[in-house]
Amino acid sequence: MIEFSAQNLNFKDTLDCGQIFRFKPFDGGFIVFSLGECAILKSDEKTSFIDCTSESYFSSFFDLAFDYSAVAEKIKGYGFEKLTKASSLYPGLRILRQDKTEALFSFIISQNNNIPRIKSTIEKTCDKLGETKIFKGIEYKAFPTVEAFASKDEDFFKSLGYGYRAEYILNTARLITDGKLDLSSLDKLPTPELKSELLKIKGVGDKVADCALFFGFHRSDAFPVDTWIEKLYREDFNGTLTDRKKISKYFTDIFKENSGYVQQYLFYAKRNGTL
């Protein structure tokens, strides 16, 4: 059992801000899955509790060693009132350190999609292809191996609700199993070069690449742009750019290595109507 300050780890804010899809309400808290691991999450006013298959895995997953107060101080220093407000509203929002393959595949599935459908599609995929696991009497499915993805055809994935994304997910899986795409090797590249390589994957555009960069490769100098960020850019930053790539660069030029953290605070606050 891991215990952590509830002020610095808010499960709802962390799970509900669009960075992960394999979780659901459970017994007054949440249950979350990552790769083949599982954690039951509960909290009271002072403490967040993580009852899990592996304490070392979930300590890393929730990035518990990272000092978010230092990020908050840097954010205050930028002098953007609404950004400071957003970060102060959600001090317990943490960026998960997800597996790069699971993150990339999940965000390929997510493109031009809504969250309920994304979660349903990923859950169906795990049910069909994932290894069965049990934790405290709870049966669940691991995220499928790349080999399991590569063994199927497009029709299989279309039957699970992938639509046109079936081609992209199958192509990505087979690039990896054929040795033409090595995510661990790519992880050694600087962020701009890494993004360029990700964009070479069929079906991976700027938003999917930036999400994979931040949530899977842990590159905090990435800044994903979606409709909420576009809205925020126009309404709260008086922006006039319309190209998402240029909007992303606008923010990364300002916030540099803190761009990803800024994006999550702003996105979550804007979506929640709290800015």
What this model shows, in words?
Strand 2 (23-26) and strand 3 (29-34) form a beta hairpin. The protein is of the alpha+beta class. The longest helix has 15 residues, at 115-129. Among the domains are: 75-92 and 222-272, Endonuclease Iii, domain 2 (Orthogonal Bundle), CATH 1.10.1670; 99-217, Hypothetical protein, domain 2 (Endonuclease III, domain 1), CATH 1.10.340.30. 51% of the residues lie in helices and 13% in strands. It has helices at 11-15, 55-61, 68-77, 81-89, 100-110, 115-129, 146-150, 154-159, 165-177, 183-186, 191-198, 206-216, 227-236, 244-255, 259-272; strands spanning 2-5, 23-26, 29-34, 37-43, 47-52, 132-135, 138-141.
